[in-house]
């Protein structure tokens, strides 16, 4: 026992739990192992030192073999905690080397690291041009990579319908280094529902709240009067024009796409495709030609490049009553199930969406059912400034007269409607629960006389599908889970949840 | 020409006629321009006869689908599309493409200068007497339709052009 006493006093003696060679003399026995770890409560990634006290008779072998139910433990009993998203109990075991069935355990409690560094404020207001409604803006800081040469840009639109950071070159004052492919500058054409943006791809360190993405590709938007000129293969994908010339055409100083994919284009823009899409171009002088770009060179969803909280986002906006509000303040929260403020249990249901592996139909869309008809090309999109769905012929809801025919002017206002949403798998089969969703629309012309910037009941036509735009987000917790990334204790993206 | 006679034989005949004409437009053009589009998209063609009209679907190797709706008389009265990227609308809509651009630009200008309505930011919806054009979506999934209301055959609903 004196030897045992020595064991306890010399806390940093290394005992090797060697395989084979049980040690001890024939007449010795081990009667028990007790384990203690200090400290017994730690946080993600921290360390705790565990000691094993072995009791026995005769000249027994005091060596133990260490094990841990999570994290890692060294042969000297130094335990390193895993990264956890919620409080986790880890069992530490020490097995006697001489008699492997004699062991002792201790519990180490691991808590998640909490930080408000994953919360960026969201504001709904009239925007840099003073004319917008239902656009949620955040503030982004970009730096020339690896330097302190930085610029903070406000009124960047938060868009779950796209991926990637795009900034007006007219607003940018720092020289972000351009991205080149084989000695030629890389430019990009990105199509939105109502127009396109065009311009060079550069790299930047991007910081939002306490999260930083280092040296990631970002898209700089140029007007059509700036070289290189917009290729016709770019502009012919939409009837809308170049939106990247000014804050009034874009409605913002930039767009941060935090949608459910890792890059804006993905595998379709790599050499795995048999045709080169009209998305990325190499330009020498004014001559631009479409090019494949490997995934690492494409403009990414900046969230995937954060050190932590990198698997998706949560958007929280307050309820907005019928008639609208002058504005709204909410939060863009990074990560899902990574902190105490982004637990997926804040959502009532998860909606799986196709990821494009295999079938390329309806990527990122789920199924909305309305009046007995299904619309499998429906989606949630914070970058749309209304609830855009179907048309007057299908719904019986008239559009506003004259120049406002892009909005609905229901005769019954407010008009309370009901639909249901359901996820779909990669083959277009319904997946998960079909969950009712109630929504209210009002006469848009009446709304506009209120001169508000946040309208939960603003709507308009979009034949054949539901585009659940920013009004859908008011009063909800809406998660966007990123393709291929796991949510701890949860699903793998892509998915929406609310 | 009865719709029942619109099978591959008469389509090839129409192509032979079309070889003598510049054939890059589709909407409003004749059925032969469907084959031109197929060649340009390097796609596979699949046709469905609905009696009142024939629908030809071209699928490009990258999965973009274009559907062209043809009257019994052989005129393309509507087109629809969906896929990861939009198709070349200048080719697909022919002269109607410029109309769609102008109408969309006019909508934005009117909204911004009228002082009474903010700019709609979302799917494009153009509804003019001579052309309806709709396109919406998000990265990796776009879809839309375009049609000439006056060309839609009797008994066919605009909602069938999808």
Provide structural commentary.
The complex is a heterodimer of chains A (498) and B (162). Chain A has 498 residues and is mainly beta. Chain A folds into 3 domains: 2-111, Immunoglobulin-like (Sandwich); 115-310, Cathepsin D, subunit A, domain 1; 311-498, no CATH class. Chain A has 5 helices and 31 strands. In chain A, strand 10 (136-143) and strand 11 (150-159) form a beta hairpin. In chain A, 52% of the residues are buried. By secondary structure, chain B is α+β, with helices and mostly antiparallel strands. Chain B has one domain (3-150). Chain B has helices at 8-18, 32-41, 89-93, 96-114; strands spanning 44-49, 54-59, 65-70, 76-83, 124-128, 131-138, 141-147. A 7-stranded antiparallel sheet of chain B has the order 1-2-3-4-7-6-5, covered by helices on one side. In chain B, helix 1 packs across helix 2 (32-41). Chain B is globular and about 45 Å long. Chains A and B meet through helix 5 and strand 29 of A and helix 3, helix 4, strand 5, strand 6 and strand 7 of B.
Short summary of the structure?
The complex is a heterodimer of chains A (498) and B (162). By secondary structure, chain A is mainly beta. Chain A is built from five helices and 31 strands.
